[in-house]
Amino acid sequence: MQILLDVDGCLLDYETPALAVAASITGHVATKEERSTTWDILDCCEQYRLHKDPIHEAWQAPGFCLGLQPIPGALDFVKRLSELGDVFLVTSHMKQAKMWVWEREQCLEKHGFTDHIEGIIHTHHKYKINGKFLIDDRVSNVVDWLNASADYQIGIILDHYGYDESDYAKISEKWPTLVQDGFVQYSITFNEVISAIEER
Ligand SMILES: [Mg+2]
Fold this sequence. Notes:
It is a single chain. The chain is an alpha/beta fold. The protein has two domains: 2-13 and 69-199, HAD superfamily/HAD-like (Rossmann fold), CATH 3.40.50.1000; 15-59, no CATH class. The protein has helices at residues 15-26, 32-35, 46-50, 52-59, 74-84, 100-110, 139-148, 165-174, 176-180, 190-199; strands spanning 2-5, 12-13, 69-70, 86-91, 119-122, 133-136, 154-158, 184-187. The strands form two sheets. The chain has a six-stranded parallel beta sheet, sandwiched between helices. A two-stranded antiparallel sheet has the order 2-3. The termini are close together. The model has no long low-confidence stretch (mean pLDDT 91). It binds magnesium ion. Magnesium ion binds at residues 6, 8-10, 136-138. Magnesium ion (MG) binds next to loops.
């Protein structure tokens, strides 16, 4: 059984350093309320929307990707997943960041993730990758993947911060049967994801 797993926002804490960069460029620290309005940091408040380009550029700078830290419990989560199936990390690189792919691989190796996975797939087309499960913090990635895939595949939204809850509510309205039949599941903890996979 193949388990596809996103990296940023699922295993690595992109959020904290990305917000720090945005705050240092704009002088504005996004409030919790502003941040919780959308998955997209650049769209969470007026100040960040106005400075999209410089913020984005700073995220692409050498060293940013390499310095991302694991979310607490992430390594143990991957170890447990690897006992349930073959884990492939599926991650979208920043296209303009020349070092991103290399830094991502170094970072994942440095923190021990590569000891428990079958491989790393760098792609902007996650929906093209086959697997029984896709675990991702972005609702649209999960929906695109389910729309493109064969039957009996299951998308799990892992939303540590709760920023995608409103998007999830929208898909629950749009595709109620996907949700009712368990083809899309919403979780906020690693344990919930493990349980969802064990139950299938
Ligand atoms: Mg992500």
